[in-house]
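4.2 Preliminary Data

To establish feasibility before requesting continued support, the project team ran the inverse folding procedure on a target of 830 residues. The structure was first converted into the token representation described in Section 3, and no sequence information of any kind was made available to the design step. The complete token record follows.
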């Protein structure tokens, strides 16, 4: 018996009860017989309730004749009431409305649970939908019915199911937009605003899942407004919906705390249950795969809308990278509405996008999957590569590796972060942060020539290391200050050979960053420290080392704790090295003639400095952190403090230098360069250098700037000419100096951060020198990945993260939702 019929039956019984109280026994008998006919018509003859009703009629006769008491009649009536409530099965009719088959997994396991329930009548009803053109008009219809689902679905024709007549007890939908969507719209008969009037219980289940949040505009769509309940994947997501809905609608469309229910998403159920052997692949796909690893490539709508032509370039790059490999298969699965979205919202991209797809499918070297079967792609692939989307959340269930693509990365070559450039006579020498080698640099072509590896030595543990900093040349020898090794390096240009001089070890726990600068003075080389607690002098004739520490105690006295950092950049004026302190408001002046130091306090307590320059009269000191730049004179003190260049970012500037009457500040973690008129102190922006840099070097009148993503920019002050290009290590040169590369991109896949956030457990494609991983690196990792204990541990880590984003992580969300709906509709006793 349907729920509404059961309700009608109870209403009739209530009328009989009222007649019984009024002793209108003839009316009671008529009502009882009417109920018997009602039940027989629906349930058939022989029900216990009808038997009790027939007995009731006999008792009525005897009570009317005085043979039985009214108390007996009342007791029997209570039995009838209980029987109607407990002995008559209430069947629930549920209409599941779907339109895009590939999105229907948001309802699938609820439907399968209802289909298996003998007290449910479940109807799976695909409905038509329409694409919109650029003007917003519907112009192309689609219907995904039979043929889009497997045999577990019994398809009901939407034209034969009369919603107004049948009035289903529950309607499920995952289409929340009504006519708000710019790309598609479902048939207006199935808009949520109308459905609400056709059922006592309209349920909206989002067609997507989230990782750790949801955009607020999803919280107030028509489907959310008109649904009696919205089923959400987690308490975290529910809290967002409740807050946003309250702010916009209050209790106008139901109390938000009751409307939104966190039971999990059915989309996860199939991920928990699916394995590769569940699916029989097309023969052409199986032949392509063979015994190769498979990487799922997922492209999303939001990425195309955001990045436009750049995103198409990215797709081409990805396809080219995989095409050149014979040890892995690409499984490209675009969002089901990619083409329709381009048609409606980016029509200028449609022809080019279709051309890319056509070429890929015609060449036949990879898999193109535009079927509704997302879970097949998840189960049959070995790793995920692509955009941020709900597929990432689903893929996390498998524990398999996930890499987020970067639309700005269209090269697999390793970017180079310039460590230094130095010119001696006609040769420019160069070195890079992640390569243990010395190169020659051609000023005209920017080509590199490999010279030699640096001498082996202890290297402090770090992802990215520069072993040595900018050298100085004396009599055909380059003297290199050791940054992340414990030995000074000497390179003979004529002999093409390195030698080394060991330093006194200061601590077994040293973090490295020993020395940052070299100064040639007469027959000595001075090394200025970063973390090493001494200025070191090298005699070029004897290679004898002398250590100077008279500055250490007075500088430490200005610090609140024992300093570990000392200096970075310095300047030489009249045989004196001026070194601004990285950890306090001081400048140390070291006289190379007397080898004595003077410590000056500069500026306010809390200031610290990174770089210094001299304009012929005064010094200019730039901040290490977010404090001001200071104009200073050793005898006159602070002359000016420049607060207008303060930045919220730490380490805003790299170097400060004096040129053409101005003091220039080069950006590091900020995006704005500045210049200050050294005479008037007027500050203005220096748009010539608005890029974040990690190193800067002057070669005569040309400034070279290296960025975090491997671009090299040159600016000639003589003629204001500038040029820039990506500075990467070519594949040929990388192979030649493979043993010299300190940066091990493969090592980045060895560990996994312990986290409860899915995106924190993903790998990221990046050209940033400090976190460089290319698509090729990722493919290499997947191809060589084994089922080692370490790899299995990482998989379990990734799987465990899913428990934070889904309220039900045992694959029974559909059953839990059905149980909630039945309890809401007919009560827990049923």
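Position-by-position output of the design step:
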């Amino acid at each position: 018996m349907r729920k509404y019929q059961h309700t009608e039956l109870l209403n009739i019984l209530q009328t009989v009860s009222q007649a019984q109280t009024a002793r209108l026994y003839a009316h009671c008998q008529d009502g009882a017989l009417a109920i018997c006919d009602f039940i027989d018509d629906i349930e058939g003859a022989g029900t216990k309730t009808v038997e009790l009703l027939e007995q009731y009629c006999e008792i009525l006769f005897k009570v009317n004749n005085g043979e039985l008491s009214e108390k007996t009649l009342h007791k029997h009536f209570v039995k009838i009431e209980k029987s109607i409530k407990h002995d008559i099965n209430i069947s629930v009719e549920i209409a599941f409305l779907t339109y895009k088959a590939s999105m229907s997994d948001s309802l699938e396991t609820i439907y399968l649970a209802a289909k298996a329930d003998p007290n449910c009548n479940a109807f799976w009803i695909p409905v038509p939908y329409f694409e919109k053109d650029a003007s917003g008009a519907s112009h192309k219809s689609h219907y995904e019915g039979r043929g889009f689902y497997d045999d577990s679905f019994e398809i009901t024709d939407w034209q034969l199911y009369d919603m107004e007549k049948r009035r289903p007890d529950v309607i499920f939908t995952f289409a929340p937009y009504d006519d708000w969507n710019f790309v598609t719209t479902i048939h207006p008969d199935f808009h949520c605003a109308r459905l609400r009037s056709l059922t006592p219980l309209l349920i909206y289940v989002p067609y997507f899942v989230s990782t750790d949040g949801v955009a607020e505009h999803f919280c107030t769509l028509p489907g959310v407004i008109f649904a009696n309940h919205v089923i959400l994947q987690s308490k975290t997501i529910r809290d967002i919906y409740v807050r946003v809905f309250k702010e916009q609608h209050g209790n106008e469309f139901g109390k938000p705390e009751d409307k939104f229910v966190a039971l999990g998403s059915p989309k996860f159920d199939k991920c928990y249950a699916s394995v590769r052997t569940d699916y029989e692949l097309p023969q052409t796909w199986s032949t392509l795969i063979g015994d190769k690893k498979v990487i799922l490539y997922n492209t999303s709508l939001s990425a195309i809308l955001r990045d436009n032509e750049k995103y198409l370039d990215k797709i081409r790059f990805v396809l080219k990278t995989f095409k050149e490999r014979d040890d892995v298969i690409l499984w490209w699965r675009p969002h089901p509405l990619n083409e329709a979205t381009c048609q409606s919202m980016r029509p200028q991209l449609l022809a080019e996008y279709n051309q890319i797809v056509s070429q890929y499918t015609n060449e036949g070297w990879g898999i193109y999957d535009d079927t509704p079967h997302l879970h097949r792609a998840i189960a049959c692939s070995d790793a995920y590569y692509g955009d941020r989307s709900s597929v990432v959340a689903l893929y996390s269930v498998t524990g398999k590796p996930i890499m987020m693509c970067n639309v700005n990365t269209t090269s697999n070559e390793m970017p180079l972060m310039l460590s230094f450039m130095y010119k001696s006579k006609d040769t420019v020498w160069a070195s890079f942060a992640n390569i243990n080698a010395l190169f020659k640099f051609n000023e005209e072509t920017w080509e590199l020539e490999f010279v030699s590896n640096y001498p082996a030595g202890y290297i402090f543990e770090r992802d990215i290391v520069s072993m040595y900093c900018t050298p100085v040349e004396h009599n055909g020898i380059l003297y290199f200050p050791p940054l992340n090794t414990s030995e000074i390096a000497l390179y003979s240009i004529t002999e093409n050979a390195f030698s080394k001089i060991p330093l006194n070890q200061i601590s077994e726990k040293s973090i490295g960053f020993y020395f940052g600068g070299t100064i040639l003075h007469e027959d000595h080389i001075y090394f200025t420290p970063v973390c090493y607690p001494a200025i070191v002098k090298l005699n070029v004739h004897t290679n004898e080392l002398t250590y100077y520490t008279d500055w250490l105690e007075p500088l430490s006295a200005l610090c609140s704790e024992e300093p570990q950092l000392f200096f970075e950049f310095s300047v030489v004026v009249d045989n004196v090295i001026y070194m601004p302190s990285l950890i306090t408001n001081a400048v140390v002046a070291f006289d190379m003639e007397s080898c004595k130091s003077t410590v000056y306090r500069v500026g306010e307590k809390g200031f610290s400095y990174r770089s210094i320059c001299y304009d012929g009269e005064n010094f200019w000191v730039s901040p290490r952190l977010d404090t001001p730049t200071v104009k200073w004179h050793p005898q006159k003190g602070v002359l000016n403090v420049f607060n207008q260049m303060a930045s919220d970012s730490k380490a805003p500037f790299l170097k400060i230098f004096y040129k053409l009457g101005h003091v220039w500040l080069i950006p590091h973690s900020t995006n704005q360069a500045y210049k200050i008129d050294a005479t008037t102190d007027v500050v203005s922006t220096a748009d010539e250098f608005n890029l974040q840099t990690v190193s800067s070097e002057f070669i005569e009148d040309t400034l070279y700037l290296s960025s975090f993503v491997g671009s090299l920019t040159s600016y000639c002050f003589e003629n204001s000419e500038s040029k820039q290009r990506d500075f990467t290590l070519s594949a040929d040169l990388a192979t030649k100096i493979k043993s010299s590369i300190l940066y091990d991109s493969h090592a980045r896949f060895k560990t996994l951060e312990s986290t409860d956030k899915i995106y924190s457990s993903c790998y990221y494609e990046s050209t940033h020198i400090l976190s460089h991983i290319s698509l090729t690196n990722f493919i290499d990792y997947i191809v060589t990945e084994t089922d080692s204990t370490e790899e299995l541990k990482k998989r379990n880590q990734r799987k465990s993260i899913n428990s934070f984003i889904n309220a039900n992580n045992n694959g029974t969300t559909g059953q839990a939702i059905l149980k909630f709906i039945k309890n809401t509709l007919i009560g827990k006793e049923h």
